[in-house]
Amino acid sequence: MIHLRLERRSETPAWMQIALPILAVIVALVLCSVLVSLAGAPVLSAYGEMFLSTFQTPYDVQDTLVKASPWRSAPSSGISAPRAS
How many beta carbons lie within 10 A of that of residue 43, not counting itself? Predict the structure, then answer.
């Protein structure tokens, strides 16, 4: 039987902080390209359309930046706390 012991790292190496997000994006692109090809669409033209469509007009660029930003000016649920009488 295999015994594993997990230990907390004191700090994450710099190469790992750079490599893991890049690897995550590559793995996601590969997995999604499998799904796109299973759907019968050409993978490269689908990715090209997806990436280029976000920069066609100034509104598209603005909309992409707004959706990508973590800051929100209003509550997302639209539900406010009840008022005390």
Answer: 15
